Amino acid sequence: AGAMGEYARSTALVIRLIDPSTRADAISYLADSADNHLFQTVWLALGRWTDSAETIVAVMRARVDAEQKAGKKSNVSVFSFPNALAARGHVKEAASRTAFPGLLAQYAMVGVIPLDSAGRMARSWLAQPGDGLLFAGPLLAAVHDTVSIAAALRKIEAARQHPPPNLPPIAKDFFGYAVASERAYLALARGDSAEALSLFDASPDTAAFGGSGIDDLVHAQLLAARSRVTDAAALLERPPVGFNPAVSPVEVLRALERGRVNERLGNRERAIEGYSLVVRAWRNPDPELQPFVAEARAALARLSAEKASSGESQ
What we know:
The protein has 17 helices and no strands. The protein is an all-alpha fold. Helix 9 runs antiparallel to helix 10 and helix 9 (136-142) runs parallel beside helix 11. The N and C termini lie far apart (49 Å). 41% of the residues are buried. The model has no long low-confidence stretch (mean pLDDT 91).
């Protein structure tokens, strides 16, 4: 049985986008004529497709251009399009198109936003309402700003002690996780990686509810640095909570770390899977991302050579 109704239309558009002979017309239709539901359905279908033509980037760019000509701006412009760009290594442009702290924190982690600028950006998040408070920790730790992290910790503690009215229980639980996470970043800012690791180990990560992507990566890196490689691999194997319709920069860095720790453990196939995702996602990345890709390519060549050598010796 085939798709029906709206999903038949989106399926037909996906097929047209995959075919080079019909791609241009499909992009034009999605940019100018498709309603929001149809457009989002196609985006969800293709958002994680890492094709060399970067089809979804072309679709998103055309839609954003059409929105700008019409004098309007939707979530596509400030969230979905930056997501699509960053997923394919175009993080500089992505950073110029969004103000979402959850995205900008990841862009800073891959080096596209310089450390000093990232620190200033994180401090600005503390001074205004919004979820920036929850993403400032890793950026402030990177510039060793203990004063600002301590201020963030006090704000989160205050919100936990005196939550807004009608706050659902899930949000109250998350505050407990956020406090534990911020304490770990405060230890990192002080240069105490052992204490930071201990705090991450003890954090109630089941209360993160999908908001721990950056924290999990930092935790795994600390585990690996302390030679707790098996623990790091186990953490990196845990599936993320929720669904992201694009391969986020943190997901790519996580894949790189998964390649590293599994290579150290001798899990060749798992290592290859991790390194391969980096190479597939960031085929033509910004210069700042090239070292990550170069490392993954070198590792894949090394592991392939080891396999060949092993095969010849048998």
